[in-house]
Amino acid sequence: MAHESSYVPGNAVEKWIDDRLPIIRWSKEHLMDYPTPKNLNYWWTFGAILAFMLGVQIVTGIVLAMHYTPHVSLAFDSVEHIRRDVNGGRVIQAVHTTGASMFFAAVYIHMFRGLYFGSYKAPREILWILGVIIFVLMVTTAFMGYVLPWGQMSFWAATVITNIVGAIPVIGNPILELLRGGFAVDNATLNRFFSLHYLLPFVIAAVVALHIWALHVPGNSNPTGVEVKSSRDTVPFHPYYTMKDLFAIVVFCIPFAWFVFFAPDILGHPDNYIMANSQVTPTHIVPEWYFLPFYAILRAIDFNIFFIDSKLGGVIFFAGAILVLFFVPWLDTSKVRSGSFRPIFKWFYWLFVANFVLLAYLGSAPAEGIFVLLSKIATAYYFIYFLIVLPLLGRFETPRELPTSISESVLKHSTPVGGADPALAKTTH
Amino acid sequence: MIKTKAIIGALLVSILFAAAPAAAQEGGHSTPEIKKEPWSFAGPFGTYDRNQLQRGFQVFREVCASCHGARLMAFRNLSEPGGPEFTEGQVKALAAEYDVADPSVAGGTRPAVPADRWPSPFANEQEARDANGGALPPDFSVIAKARGTTQPFPWWILNYFTAYSEGGPDYIHAVLTGYHEPPAGVTVPEGMHYNEYFPGHNIAMAPPLSDGAITYEEGETGSVPQTTDQYARDVSAFLMWMAEPHLVARKEAGLQVIAFLLLFAGLMYLVKRKLWAKVEH
Ligand code: HEM
């Protein structure tokens, strides 16, 4: 939001700094005064939770890297060494691994929030696209991180997932060899994954900075989807949202701590406590839970489509499932932003959520019997939602009447009798 | 209305996501369901029973250690708090009974000291296989976390709320007590043994335990039954300790952290409510 700066340097030193690098002015504008819609619900706290989780992952990751050894014959033991011999190592290590799961839980909620409330619509398309880029980076980082403990699942997940790159015609094999640093997943793979796993979180941090920049230009959307019309619709970010976000972060930490301290391995697979062995294939190769929906889509394509064989088809759908997200701002043709005012959209949306959960389940189920058919149906709906439902619904659906402003909708909630505040009834732009 | 739907949706997403890995294991093997045993170290308040760990160590040392290694366990761990807590003198004497490889001394081996790791029973994998009819006895260091059990839908969802992490010891106890004659019509290959709980049922390990095989010393807490079931329980508990030596400290810290977080969340809620009381939202 463009707004007048209210910053007045408090003393000579601050003034001196302000004339050279107005960083205090910038912080006051963006971290304190930033006008934020006053009707945000708790789904809007997940951005702050994500920023917190990124910090947690980077800090714990740096400590782990001090004790970790990226070598095929030492990696497994070095992670155990952290758990057993490093002071506080069991907890730091558990925070990092369960932290990855909590990070993904939060990012999925954050994305589904965006899909429900139409946060990706103009003028927030770039904000959304930066989000999708962050998601792709997160997936890559988590995948590489999972390889580092060099357990059976690490090794076989690395083998299976890098393998799919090989399905791409012509350039597939050279890329595959580049990724692995050789013909098979081995020491070279482990080393480059470690290097990239250390690098990518900082790239994510940089894209998050852009993400928040892109947020601060139009300002937050809100549950009504009606843009801010006057300063009556907003409150300063600090202290209203700093305190609300902090409250949400603390609450988020409770289940997080539950897993870290009482069940640090429950989100993982026991096979990863067996050292990687290229001679023994586990009975079931399953990725981490947060990849399961996409893994299900990858496996759903078990048939050839004309000249495209099933393997390449799987890769196309897998990549397409993520790529389609980039185009959501243009696929959704509805003029109404928030799903709250779209009676038919809601049905398709919640079906999409349930379908996504089903995909996760199917990703973990063996590819046999009824699961094969279900995977295909669920994959089809995933794409139908984006490519058919969102474009058409905007044309045919009659949305409910929108409130004229945030303040009006807020008043309707809190004072059922009486009318809207006359002072804000007619603020047009 | 929208809110409740949203909350239900979010709960669904989070629960089912968290539950998916368990579902993955569910499809695994066609073995009968393994019972959850009442371990002293289960749940947020769980702690190891020192006497049980000492007995479990005795079973490990007298029986299992001739085939299974424990390469990540140092002798000194046996005297550390939260474990079997043998005295330092006992551990020193125990270590001295074992020889460890040390290329810097004449002859290449010397008696172990508490800082040494538990010596492996075989020099390498090939030797271990040769001695066991081609099968490899797995190292015990983290075996209690490398095995697990599965529950049918929807019961595994409960595991996330009870913090069920004892699938390893439950499985090991089940395997050790799961030997019996094969059902009619099933033939067990030469050198294999029928086991109800081992995936595929044919295990290369002969039943290592039998009633009365190990003599427990009369402890402070009175006598403990000298049965296969009791040995299996004790050694499983010991293996859990070996895989998770800091479990007790971790859970104690967890209770403090969660108590703190609950308090902090309560205070933050009050701060937030007071602040927002002035704003219509
Ligand atoms: C490390 C990961 C991420 C961080 C730290 C982050 C941070 C934030 C923050 C602090 C906000 C403002 C508060 C809020 O609305 O919750 C926000 C808003 C937003 N984020 Fe993210 N984000 C991340 C990932 C993503 C992803 C993966 C997407 C989508 C693919 C996304 C899409 C959006 C959108 C559309 C908004 C605007 C919401 C609105 O105002 O209605 N973000 N993000």
Summarize this structure briefly:
The complex is a heterodimer of chains A (429) and B (281). Chain A is an all-alpha fold and 429 residues long.
Order of helices and strands of chain A: HHEHHHHHHHEHHHHHHHH
Oligomer status: heterodimer
Helix content of chain B: 40-55%
Distance between the termini of chain B: 18 Å
Sheet with most strands: strand arrangement of chain A? 1-2
Q: Give the beta-strand count of chain B.
A: 4
Give the N-terminus to C-terminus distance of chain A in angstroms.
15 Å
What ligand molecules are bound, each kind once? protoporphyrin IX containing FE
Number of individual domains of chain B: 2
Give the CATH topology of the largest domain in chain B.
Cytochrome Bc1 Complex, Chain D, domain 2
Instruction: Just give the CATH class of the largest domain in chain B.
Output: Mainly Alpha
Structural summary, described in words:
The complex is a heterodimer of chains A (429) and B (281). Chain A has 429 residues and is an all-alpha fold. Chain A contains 17 helices and 2 strands. In chain B, 43% of the residues lie in helices and 4% in strands. Chain B is mainly alpha-helical. The longest helix of chain B is centred in the last third of the chain and has 30 residues. Chain B is globular and about 80 Å long. Classes of the chains: A mainly alpha (429), B mainly alpha (281). Chains A and B meet through helix 4, helix 5, helix 10, helix 14 and helix 16 of A and helix 1, helix 5 and helix 9 of B. The site of protoporphyrin IX containing FE (HEM) has 28 residues of chain A, from helix 3, helix 5, helix 6 and helix 9.
Short descriptors:
heterodimer, A: 429 residues, mainly alpha, two-stranded antiparallel sheet, 2 strands, globular, disordered C terminus, B: 281 residues, Cytochrome Bc1 Complex, Chain D, domain 2, 2 domains, two-stranded antiparallel ribbon, 4% strand, binds protoporphyrin IX containing FE
